[in-house]
């Protein structure tokens, strides 16, 4: 069944697929956003649904909502923006050279301001939150990162950077603000990995 691309079901399904892609391809200097949905189709297989959508640089995506995390298949046409390697390497070197572990709160602040040096930390949070969004989305949710409440760098003896984030997720459907904790590893050559995450009490 064809869906109207601008309507809620198509936009929400494409948002979950975008979250999966962003987690796999995003990082401190690359944030993937959904610009538009060009086409969407709903296939019902028993209790499973699979909208298909083409967005931005993503040629096609297939999302299968089921009892576990949504299953996403996608193909990419062209490049996903500029190659962030140089900026990623500079960020990596800067954080590795800090004498004291990085600690920050309230990104953005109550005025919506993000200090320039915190932009890569925020972008990394976007990619990591996209894992949580992808893994926890259902037909009755629509999550978005609202704010980083707290982020603390965890010193390691290997080449990875590790951050302990507490974030606030906004569910557009219920209008609920949900605290979530996540442990995030990142390396310029290996990308983002969420090693632990848990929904926190309000």
UniProtKB/TrEMBL annotation:
Q: Which InterPro entries match?
A: CYSTATIN_LXN, Cystatin_sf, Latexin
Which PROSITE patterns did the record assign?
Answer: CYSTATIN_LXN
- Which GO CC terms are listed, alphabetically? extracellular space
Keyword terms: Protease inhibitor, Repeat
Q: Name one GO molecular function term.
A: metalloendopeptidase inhibitor activity
**What PANTHER family does this protein's entry cite?**
LATEXIN (PTHR28591:SF1)
Q: What is this protein called?
A: Latexin
What's the source species for this entry?
Answer: Crocodylus porosus
């Amino acid at each position: 069944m064809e869906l109207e691309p601008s309507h809620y079901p198509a936009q929400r399904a494409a948002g979950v697929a975008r979250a999966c892609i962003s987690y796999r391809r995003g990082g401190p200097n690359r944030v993937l956003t959904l610009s538009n949905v060009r086409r969407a189709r709903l296939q019902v297989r028993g209790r499973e649904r699979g909208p298909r959508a083409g967005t931005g640089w993503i040629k096609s995506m297939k999302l299968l909502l089921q009892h576990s995390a949504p299953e996403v298949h996608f193909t990419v046409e062209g490049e996903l923006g500029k190659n962030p390697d140089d900026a990623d390497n500079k960020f990596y070197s800067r954080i590795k050279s800090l004498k004291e572990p990085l600690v920050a709160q309230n990104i953005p602040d109550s005025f919506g301001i993000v200090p320039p040096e915190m932009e890569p930390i925020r972008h990394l949070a976007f990619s990591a939150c996209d894992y949580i969004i992808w893994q926890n989305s259902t037909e009755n949710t629509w999550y978005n990162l609202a704010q980083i409440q707290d982020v603390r760098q965890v010193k390691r003896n290997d080449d990875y950077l590790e951050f302990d984030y507490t974030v606030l997720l906004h569910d557009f459907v219920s209008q609920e603000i949900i605290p979530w904790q996540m442990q995030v590893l990142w390396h310029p050559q290996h990308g983002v990995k969420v090693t632990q995450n848990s929904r926190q009490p309000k």
